[in-house]
Amino acid sequence: MHDFLLAKEIIDSVLAIAKEKGLENIKSVSLEVGGASIPHNHHHEHEHDEHFDELNMENVEFGLKSIAKNTILKDTEFEIKKIEGNNWKITNINI
Question: Could you tell me which residues are beta bridge partners of residue 75?
Answer without folding.
Answer: none
